[in-house]
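Worked example 3. Consider a protein that binds beta-D-fucofuranose.
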Amino acid sequence: MKKLFPLLALAAAAITFTTGCGKKADPGTGTTDADGKKKLTVGFSQIGAESAWRTANTQSIKDEAAKRSINLVFSDAQQKQENQIKALRSFVAQGVDVIAFSPVVETGWEPVLQEIKQAGIPVILSDRAVDVSDPSLFATFIGADFIEEGKKAGNWLAEKTGGKATIVELSGTPGAAPALNRKKGFEQAIADKPDMKIIKSQSGDFTRAKGKEVMEAFLRSPEAKSITALYAHNDDMALGAIQAIEEAGLQPGKDILIVSVDGVKAAFEAMKAGKLNCTVECNPLIGGQVMDLAEKLAAKQEVPRRVFSQEGIFDQSKAEAELPNRKY
Ligand code: GYE
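Given these inputs, the predicted complex is written out as structure tokens:
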């Protein structure tokens, strides 16, 4: 990997030469800073742009890299694992200093992580975890506690309904850590509530469009009339479902109680309008924590294996006061 740096430096110099026309190199781009010192290069493979959460997360990563003058090689996988694997391999080929990525699903990463390990590049898992048997395949995982989020959603609904609800669930991308664990946590929270039942569960792939489509199907099913609550693994799917519920002539937030996860601005607006009842916060603004870890790993310092992001829970009563504070 070391051998590639002179090449990259040369390429950066060539770009400066051909585009600069005598002007000074922009210190925010390229692989060297204004004094010609080598910048830290971080390869980041993002899942896609499936939700407002993801868009805020991408922005946070990019902003933080720019702020620290880190050379960020960013790649968007459009929600496909194969694209992420390609991006990771290209980071190895480019000889980046640190690799960070947000794995779309939990499994299937061993071969590429092995290649990265052989190249001696430290790996940060950002936001989502992987399921691997060899713990040395990544250095650290920074992200939320998805089981805890699911529990918070389940506990809130149990309290709100006095332990009585006929629930439909919109789950996230199949095989994704937040989908698996938000389901698990919610089920744990309602396990001792015999009158709380999930009667349907289907993936809405974390998108608004799919959330709407699946909710429409739920509302066309023979059990439609019995539905009293919706649990959506993210706000975008809940917002899509709200549209479907309204189009079916029902009142979201009243005829069907809705609890979701993320805490994006649009969810707060929907709560203010009485259409969404509760959102469990999941903080996407982890760019600072990711870049802290990248800098430490590049400097061969020790980092914790697990770093948590902080999160809260908000219902309609807190929505209006919180709305102006929302940054995503
Ligand atoms: O909740 C969802 C996004 O991995 C925590 O991914 C993230 C989830 C987030 O698409 O909106």
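Take a moment to read the result before moving on. The chain has two domains: 5-143+285-307, 146-282. Residues 5-143+285-307 form a domain with the Rossmann fold fold (CATH 3.40.50.2300).
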